[in-house]
Design a protein that fits this description.
Layout lengths: L2 H38 L2 E9 L12 E9 L4 E9 L5 E7 L10 E4 L9 E6 L2 H8 L4 E6 L7 E4 L1 E4 L1
Length: 163
């Protein structure tokens, strides 16, 4: 092979090596980004103790309950299970409310269908970014209403924690 032939081959080989290195670098960066994004997604535990004393204003009732569930930060899926008992009568409504700090009232964010009111209440919803921010910021509460306490008989501030 002549020097001229080697010079023609080497630039092509150098270009191929450079392209291969760039492709490997891009692939490695893409995998690293995907891994970091999936590492940021997590499933959080959701919970609230429901009591008449935490209604606003507080109510006189032996009613009590517990909300437990999970929130997937990747799919934005909130799932809940609510057990309650000893209310002054059958539940007439139940909702997630927000945004509101402890001791303040707010509008309904997620209503519970009438057919789902008997204990235990189970359900799920996909949250918007604003709803997610309020939930994760502790600015949601859950309450259960009765005919005797139409504004709500038991209530609990919803909190999240890592699994």
């Amino acid at each position: 092979m002549t020097t001229a032939t080697l010079q023609r081959i080497r630039p092509d080989e150098t270009a191929m090596k450079l392209i291969s290195r760039r492709a490997l670098t891009i692939a490695a960066l893409s995998l690293g980004l995907a891994a970091s994004l999936s590492a940021q997604a997590e499933t959080l535990q959701v919970h609230a103790d429901l009591a008449a004393a935490t209604e606003v204003p507080p109510k006189q009732s032996d009613g009590h309950g517990m909300l437990m569930g999970s929130y997937d930060t990747d799919s934005k899926q909130l799932t809940w299970h609510v057990d309650y008992s000893d209310l002054t009568g059958p539940a007439t409504m139940a909702h997630f409310h927000g945004p509101a700090p402890v001791g303040k009232n707010a509008g309904v964010v997620i209503p519970i269908a009438t057919k789902d009111l008997p204990s235990p209440i189970e359900g799920h919803a996909t949250l918007t970014p604003a709803q997610e921010a309020d939930l994760l910021g502790g600015r949601w509460y859950f309450n259960v209403h009765t005919a005797k306490n139409p504004g709500g008989e038991i209530r609990g501030q919803v909190a999240t924690s890592k699994s």
